[in-house]
Amino acid sequence: MILPVVAYGHPVLRKVCDDITPDYPGLEKLLADMWETLYNSNGVGLAAPQINKPIRLFLVDTEQIVEGFDDEDRKEYPNEKAIKQVFINAQIIEESGELWAYNEGCLSIPKIREDIQRRAKVHIRYMDENFVEHEGHFHGITARVIQHEYDHIEGKLFIDYMSSLKKRLIKKKLDDISSGKIRMDYRMIYPK
């Protein structure tokens, strides 16, 4: 089932999320619904707060990005490996490498994109959908998507990395999103 995506301004997007246990009710169905929602909205990542669940859960699928690389992209990101992964109760251990800018967007903040500086590498501990613990080292675009989704479970949004001036310049667009004046091809929940 395709779930509605929570729009900017909804309080769940600013909540530090709670860990879950293997007996979390309906987890298998929730994961299936989140994957379906992600693909329906043409995203590369989706965090539980974006579907109105304040839990430490997010999905990442960078296959479509990496498979779509042209020759120039392959030169710039020669070792990029795509992932399709569930992250439960994730904790970032370290962000490292140089800061680099990349044009980010967010399903919860539609029609706004901005170059955001993030570290090139991330070391993260997480559980998969079977609650098997993993530690992973990711880099490049995959690391960026993980960091973006991880921010969601920490109550942080990509616009928080923008300068005060840029935030002022997009204030009207943000107000339009939170008041439901922007419509997307996917279902959304707007703040009341």
How many structural domains are formed by the residues? 1
Tell me the helix content: 25-40%
- Biggest sheet overview: 5 strands, antiparallel
By secondary-structure content and strand pairing, the structural class works out as alpha+beta
Q: Name the overall outline.
A: globular
By CATH, the topology is Peptide Deformylase
CATH homologous superfamily label: Peptide deformylase
Mean pLDDT metric? 94
- Proportion of strand residues: 25-35%
**CATH architecture verdict:** Alpha-Beta Complex
- Oligomerization: single chain
Order of helices and strands: EHEEHHEEEHHHE
Report the strand count. Answer: 7
Tell me the radius of gyration: 16 Å
Spans with pLDDT under 50 lasting ≥5 residues? none
Strand order of the largest sheet: 2-3-4-5-6
- Our count of helices gives 6
CATH secondary-structure class: Alpha Beta
State the distance separating the first and last CA atoms: 24 Å
